[in-house]
Write a structure and sequence with these properties.
The protein is of the alpha/beta class and 151 residues long. The chain contains 6 helices and 7 strands, in the order αβαβαβαβαβββα. α5 links the parallel β4 and β5.
Length: 151
């Protein structure tokens, strides 16, 4: 009820959910949802059926999923990556998602080429000393566009 109240009060048309919310909860938010699905550092494409099931469950009812690295006690913005092959295998199965977790101007081209996500999400990867760095943001955007156009 609290999230739905905020959505209504603010007139939001999109909300990002980063916790352990169910697909039923997401359906009661009152707007479209981006659901963050956390991927364990140790996950591999061959043994990570849980991530795939969550992606299919949320995307199957029209929600967009963001794949991000699981870090205990932190809900996002950790700058930590995970095995991109986990994401690439999900991409090959035809489910759209955003890729997050450890992306930087130095690796975003490789990530897009390998994974072919619907989009990317970055935060700490374009920061210097904890603040957004305009030069890094520009470089990230340029490399993202170039990689997307090449795939």
């Amino acid at each position: 009820e609290e999230v739905a109240g905020v959505v209504e009060f603010c007139g939001l048309d999109l909300a990002q959910l980063c916790g352990q919310e169910t697909v039923e909860f997401a359906g009661q938010v009152g707007c479209d949802v981006i659901k963050v699905v956390h991927v364990a550092e140790s996950a591999t494409a061959s043994d990570d059926a849980g991530t795939g099931a969550l992606v299919k469950e949320f995307s199957g009812v029209g929600h967009l999923v963001t794949l991000d690295r699981y870090v205990e006690g932190i809900q996002g913005g950790t700058g930590k990556g995970f095995d991109w092959e986990v994401a690439a295998s999900l991409s090959r199965s035809g489910h759209p998602f955003l890729l997050a977790g450890g992306l930087t101007p130095e690796n975003v081209s490789e990530a897009i080429t390998m994974v072919k996500p619907w989009g990317v999400d970055v935060s700490s990867g374009v920061e210097t000393d904890g603040k957004k760095d305009h030069a890094k943001i520009l470089e990230f955007l340029q490399k993202t566009k170039a990689a997307a156009n090449a795939t």
